[in-house]
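Before the break, one more example. Copy the sequence into your notebook; we will annotate it together after we see the structure.
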Amino acid sequence: MACASCSTGKDGQPKGCKNNGTCGTDSCNKLTVFNWLSNMELPQEQEEYKIVEVRFKNGRKHYYRNTENLSLSIGDIVAVEASPGHDVGVITLTGELVRVQLKKKKISEKSNEIYKIYRKASQRDIDVWQEVRDKEEKVKVRARQIAIRLQLQMKISDIEYQGDGSKATFYYTAEERVDFRQLIKEYAQEFKVRIEMKQVGFRQEAARLGGIGSCGRELCCSTWLTDFRSVSTSAARYQQLSLNPQKLAGQCGKLKCCLNYELDSYLDALKDFPKQDVKLKTKKGTAVCQKIDIFKGLMWYAYEGEWMNWHQLTTEQVKDIIKESEKNNTVASLEEFVFEDINTSNKNNFSDVVGQDSLTRFDQPKSKKRRKNKRRNKKHRNNKPQSKSQKPTKNN
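Here is what the structure looks like once it is written out:
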């Protein structure tokens, strides 16, 4: 997700604006809202909306009141109210679209959770903010060492310092409840700041840290996904996927969120299918369902005792056989209803160019010069004159 002028250069910095994620459009940051009302002017009698959206580390966002009537725009660094002291963040959204976001997230405009903006950040505020941000990686390493020494079953995933450096929030993940009272005492003595522990789920941890998924793209949770719905193994069963935890699990260790993306399409397609546990009764024997193809509408059945021989049927044919059995009209066999797919009859019907090539396409071909030399030498041997002893004698 980047604006049109922020293509990456050789050094990894944005090629266009070169602001490294703090450009005016703010589209280089994850979970960014596009302000489609930015070019529209307000009516003369209407005042600008006093609440703005401010982003902090790893996409964390909050809403603040502009009580001082400051002239704010997207990309400005501001000092906002915090408990205690103040925090420093970047404005990501202003104007009427903030009202829409508050309504979408069901946040009241009169809520006490909406703090106020103190001022635009001065150079001193920015220097302190950058200084504490640079310490976070070293503090995280030391914090993990202390947690391991105390033998606590938890993992410190990330650390976020407040803008003024007076407080540090430690994000951690744990399977069970952890007693970290002694841990907080040692953290306070070691880092000399106010400590706040915040537990996050494994999916939220992956969203904060980011990464590349097995599909080759950035993680959905760290780019655009905001709601984390529960994913069950039934989603994989409906989509005919093998229940392999190594393939179905994401970087968070839980089932991939993308298993829910196409689930509705599969459920709609399965409505026209007969139940798989229904056996087909024929005069030849009873057949059991072995496999289905959801989007082609095909089902494969095998007779009991002949599990290696599968018979391909359409859903309509299966429904007809079930209706006939309900009427006590048992069909002779499944062979009468076997469906032959025209596409499968062509064995060499490749869908890609690579499949049409030979397996020896990468072998080094013999050079033409070598072939010509062999032919020339063979011809030369055939035309070579014979020895004197082998010369034919003239007939007298």
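Confidence is low (pLDDT under 50) at residues 19-27. The first strand starts at residue 51 and ends at 55. Try to locate both features in your own notes.
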